[in-house]
Amino acid sequence: MQLPLTIKELPMGLKEIARMTGLSITTVSHALNGTRAVSQKSMALIRDAVAKTGYRPNGAAQALKTQRTNMIALIIPSTEPNNSTNCFFFDVLGGVKQTLQEQGYDLIVSTYSENDPHFLLGGIPVLQKNWIDGVLFVPGSRRRAECLTGVDVPVVLIDRRLDGVSLPFVGSDNEQAAVRAIELLAQSGRRRIGYIGGTLDFSSAYDRYRGYQKALAALGLAHDFSLIAYELDYSLESARNAARSLVRYGADAIFAANSVLTMGVVQYLNEQGIRIPEQIALVGFDDYDWTQIVSPPITAVRQDARGMGARGAHMLIELLAGNPPDPAAVVLPSALAVRQSHGGTRGPDTL
């Protein structure tokens, strides 16, 4: 897609309308883009030709006039080989898409590799070609604020923060969600509560681990590094290996801080004949359909992923209108879907 900067680059539909009406391409272009008045007779001819050809004015030409494309980019991490991912970002996408459609914006989705230590947001082709008005961005490492290099449009961060950056942000209450999960396990009498999570480079994973530490301290439970496995990739194999280690070191409960990691823990415990929750209690993160149909059903943190996407889109639209969002940082509450896997006596409900 290229911007039609010269007459030679104008689309064939425009040339066809000029041929049908006997008018110049310049006159037809001005009429369709509203850049100059034309006679009523000429306009009538052009409308008739447009109706016959089904021609639609080029959006890029409109962008030249308004300096806006009404196009938003959502930039999310890609799925890496041998790295199972959950559908969290698809739910975020759903909230973004619905909100933008309601407000008259179009959406482009692009991905990047979290394993690329030199990734620059400004290097993504859709940003280089000036197609978009703003960006909704899920960053990788919270320590790499330089990834924003080369971006000259408004940006709103979704799900993960960047340290030292004051951009608008919307995410979940990851730390407090982890605190509630550990408290629930402790209420069921567990004292050796293990942690399985992803890289602390992700602000979301960092906050969940910090919540785990905070809860242990508040409850007077030991912070035993033999019961902790983090810096994992989000794969079933990583979770299985971590669960094996935690079981070997005497964990009586596990908090798995990601949906895929939760699946890997369940898989390993089932394969080993280790009963949930009688021998190992479990609380996971992200509540999807599968957590309700396994035996026993899994107690899990429930994030509002669609709400996160919708709120991020609204914040970006406010920025584009010249109104910095207030508040600039939004933390959405999560819920705890309480089922049987944590070992308590409560039935299925949501805290």
TrEMBL record:
<feature type="domain" description="HTH lacI-type">
    <location>
        <begin position="12"/>
        <end position="66"/>
    </location>
</feature>
<protein>
    <recommendedName>
        <fullName>HTH lacI-type domain-containing protein</fullName>
    </recommendedName>
</protein>
<dbReference type="GO" id="GO:0003700">
    <property type="term" value="F:DNA-binding transcription factor activity"/>
</dbReference>
<dbReference type="InterPro" id="IPR028082">
    <property type="entry name" value="Peripla_BP_I"/>
</dbReference>
<dbReference type="Pfam" id="PF13377">
    <property type="entry name" value="Peripla_BP_3"/>
</dbReference>
<dbReference type="InterPro" id="IPR010982">
    <property type="entry name" value="Lambda_DNA-bd_dom_sf"/>
</dbReference>
<dbReference type="InterPro" id="IPR000843">
    <property type="entry name" value="HTH_LacI"/>
</dbReference>
<keyword id="KW-0805">Transcription regulation</keyword>
<keyword id="KW-0238">DNA-binding</keyword>
<dbReference type="InterPro" id="IPR046335">
    <property type="entry name" value="LacI/GalR-like_sensor"/>
</dbReference>
<keyword id="KW-0804">Transcription</keyword>
<dbReference type="GO" id="GO:0000976">
    <property type="term" value="F:transcription cis-regulatory region binding"/>
</dbReference>
<dbReference type="Pfam" id="PF00356">
    <property type="entry name" value="LacI"/>
</dbReference>
